[in-house]
What we know:
single chain; mainly alpha; 0% strand
Amino acid sequence: MANGFIVIKDRDWEKADSGQRDWMVFNTLKSIDARLTKLEKRPFYDKASSFVGGIIGGASAIMAKWIFFRE
């Protein structure tokens, strides 16, 4: 579980009773919810990264036009 995903093997799923299966599904959904909540809490960082990336991309497009498409 180092990467945050819960991996359930087929043999574990087949041997589990319905209560254990429900618990596995609940834990997986809870993990997904926690990760999404963490992602939703950082909108400023995402917007700032997009803004800076747009500036860098725009500047490199202008430079490429000047270098390669001179008439």
